[in-house]
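Annual report, structural modelling task.

Input specification for the magnesium ion complex:
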Amino acid sequence: MRKESYTDTIAAIATARGPAGISIIRISGPRSISIADKLFRGKIKPSRAKSHTVHFGEICNPISQQVIDQVMLSVFLAPHTYTGDDMAEISCHGSDFVASQILKVIIKTGARLAEPGEFTKRRVLANKMDITQAEAVLALTNAKNESTCRSALDQLQGKLTGYVADLGNQLKTIIARIEHLLEFEESNQTTQLQFRKIINQVKTIRADIDKTIKQNEALKYLHSGVYCVIIGKPNVGKSSLFNRLLEQDRAIVTEIPGTTRDSLQETVSINNLIFHLIDTAGLKIIKNPDKTQKIEAIGIEKSQDWLKTADFILAVFDNSSPLTQQDRLVYDAVKHKPHLIVLNKIDRTPHFNKNFFKSEKTVLVSAKYNQGVDRLKNAMSRSYTRKIAGGNGYLALNERHLDILKQLSGLIKQAEKENYLETALVNLRNGLDLLGSVTSLVSNEQILDTIFSKFCIGK
Ligand SMILES: Nc1nc2c(ncn2[C@@H]2O[C@H](COP(=O)(O)OP(=O)(O)O)[C@@H](O)[C@H]2O)c(=O)[nH]1
Ligand SMILES: [Mg+2]
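The model returned the following structure:
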């Protein structure tokens, strides 16, 4: 960490720009109070004031003695302050001009302009909060709805810190056990038995980490919605289903195969979860398309693009006609991605070979006659709400935490595969170090700077 930054006194306007009731200028560092002494005229000298007290007075230009504004000055003395250093906060009238005039005289009197997030960074450097809590402060200042606010507050109150500590303790216990085994490695047989036991414990830990990762991946859908593409060969009823799910007629439905030439996208809330539905042209192979087929071929290419980017796929098949090569193609394209098999046209005599899907769950509907559509909606939302809900409350993570947990899961998985305790131990130790970087003061200043650069000045 940059040493000199500890001894600097920093200042910034902490409130947003634009006309407002009040603006607040923050000062932090060893010279905060002496600077206030030079600028503030009131009943009491700031250096005589008790910690955590507020005083009415004026801020004057120390050279011209001109009054800049009438203010309230708050005095906070180290160590029980936000940054851990002496601090002063000046609440002035909410004009950008007044606030910046005050900031100017503060800087002239011996402070320097704070960098983005520097107050919070100092709080971290003073060991008053860990990195995850600083990130929570940032998340809170950016929170736009109740759920992001709630999860940021949880994190600020140490939920993630506790999770990491708990996970770390579990890993430490296992590492200690392995070290113990390695020390007394006389009877090979018992070691093997113990080894397997340990691996099972390791697997349980990884399952827990993977659950947290999955929950978080699902959480992202709460905020930004699920991109759900409807796929199937031409004429199986994709557009009809699209309209049904939207509860309106948006896509053109005809008996002529290949009517939907471009993709249509509409957003709909299904059981309180946002789905961005995409109706595509069907998937089929057109060899040497003629002129009229060219447009359709483009549509089909687009559906293939959608397949790559979609979060979720509704694979639609016609229950009233026999399975074809094109259906197989559709199934092959979706089977390794999150999907639901939808058998449409159940109002007609069935001719489809359902056994083709083996143990896969299928949802039976008639898009035309609105049968089974509610069941389909429930199946769609359930696959997400189940992931999000798991357990009592969830642990909301940001990209940095998720990235670390994914790497950790990879290292543990590697440890499970090892045939020797020694090598498994190396992976677990690396994992423990990695886990530490979620909360601990990161030795890599670049990471620290990246985190704080996202803050606003004054926070
Ligand atoms: N009997 C029956 N016909 C349907 C059903 N869904 C769609 N169709 C008909 O199948 C044809 C093709 O439908 P469309 O939605 O355009 O299919 P797409 O090419 O997959 O988008 C149209 O004539 C629809 O009326 C259904 O559930 N039952
Ligand atoms: Mg269509």
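DSSP finds 15 helices and 13 strands in the chain.
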